[in-house]
Amino acid sequence: MRGITKENSKASGYCLDQGAEDDDRAILYPCHGMSSQLVRYSAEGLLQLGPLGSTAFLPDSKCLIDDGKGRTPTLKKCEDVSRPAQRLWDFTQNGPIVSRDTGRCLEVEMSKEANFGLRLVVQRCSGQKWMIRNWIKHGRH
């Protein structure tokens, strides 16, 4: 399964984005469809941000991580995650994004300090929903 640009029900027109290259924080940014906003949700439960390709891990792709410590999700190279469970998420189209490791949801909250007043957090699920636009489902070969 793949998707391109992920939007949250609370922040219409904003998409998950890799943010600054030297930072490990995913951000919300107005949707533009460029490679920093390309999202792949794999059958295994990985949420990857960055260029999409046929290989499992492209150099500029990073996995969204809930390490269970803070309230903000991080981005790391998928192979660099110390505990693989931290990079696994449950997601269904127009549903929540839930960390398999912590049971917390990826959600959006209002924040004066954040870009555009919106911040990504991992917290107790409050019913926010996400949608992948241009959803591509691969058939079985």
- Label the CATH architecture: Trefoil
Q: Averaged pLDDT, please?
A: 82
- Cα radius of gyration in angstroms: 14 Å
Mass-distribution shape: globular
Helix % is: under 10%
Topology pattern, helix = H, strand = E: EEEEEEEEEEEE
Spans where pLDDT lies below 50 across 5 or more residues? none
Order of strands, main sheet, comes to 3-2-1-12
What is the straight-line distance between the termini? 13 Å
Task: Kindly provide the name of the CATH class.
Answer: Mainly Beta
List the helices and strands and how they pair.
Elements lengths: L1 E7 L2 E7 L9 E4 L8 E3 L5 E3 L12 E4 L8 E3 L12 E3 L5 E3 L5 E6 L7 E6 L6 E7 L5
Antiparallel strand pairs: 1-2, 1-12, 2-3, 4-5, 5-6, 6-7, 8-9, 10-11
Condensed summary:
This protein is mainly beta.
Describe this structure in words.
The structure is a single chain. This protein has 141 residues and is an all-beta fold. The protein has no helices and 12 strands. The strands form 4 sheets. It has a 4-stranded antiparallel sheet, with no helix packed on it. The two termini are 13 Å apart.
Keywords:
4-stranded antiparallel β-sheet, mainly beta, Trefoil (Acidic Fibroblast Growth Factor, subunit A), 141 residues, globular
